[in-house]
Batch of 2 targets.
Target 1
Amino acid sequence: MKLPWFGPPKWQDPDPAVRLEAVRRLSDQAALAEVATTDPAREVRLAAVAQLSDPERLASIALGATDENVDALARLTTEAQIVRVARTAVSTEVRCRAVARIDDRQILQRISGEDTEPIVRKQARVRLAAANPFRELLKTALNRLPVAPPLAPPAAKVYGSVDGVCDTLVGDNRFRVHGIVGHVNEPVTASPTSARQASTLEAVVSGATVLELLGNKSPEAAGADDSLNLSSYYHIEIRRTGESDFELKVTERESRAPFRGGGSNPPR
């Protein structure tokens, strides 16, 4: 009796149209991962990625240098795998796209200081700024500053929009801004436009030509051996010298106790 010969599976057929139709019906995750990384036809590879649901296999493709890495990342929903891709993917574009999906501030801080590509570090800083509840309060305060003479040196010039200045301050890896001087006894919330905060801000900024901020040294800048109990704090002064020109003066000062944005001001 002659046994039937089944031959190779249809997703290995020489005809790409046959392989495409077979892949669209395929559920075997190992086979789909093989097709996604080895099939000579891009349309077939994309179809395989679209059928994949195993986060490990999707992450493996996203981490690599194949043309399907962006598509694999788009299908990832596991936070841990998205972070893994953002930290270690071969493709700069894929790392940028992964960073755009991260909300964890600690991870974004690390990427903004550690990634080898400036565009990825910038994307992390943009995400940090967008996720920071203090940003809108800072933007309001900067918009109210009048044009004034320059600060005493040394001061760094920042040119550009108010949004750009906010991004620079919120994305600085040395410190984390906690409050505006005169406003620090009321913690900043996720909605800094409340009537109480708005009136407090008006009192602080009204008539001022310099905006003063306070911030703790960030854990990334402090390092593993620097206890926050012995940390310095940062005093930041901002003056508007033109419609789109600002000057920043950042001074690191010693503090006997960490400033956490509440209670009395740290020693000056």
Target 2
Amino acid sequence: MIRQPVPRKGTKDRIKYDLLTSPKGATVDEINHAVGHKAWSYINDTKRLAQRCGGTPHWTDGGGGERRFWITRP
């Protein structure tokens, strides 16, 4: 089995990856706080990291800081 690449430790992508692959995922506000951004959505980041790491991206409907994103891995 080939291990899928994960972002390097210490990078903003790794911080996002760790949050997105946690059991509850993360809200926009939680990700913004962790990486110092002021984004209104993380759909593209979630899709990109999921594709890079062999996972499936998910997010809740709606908007605002409480919108939740997560990645499931096989």
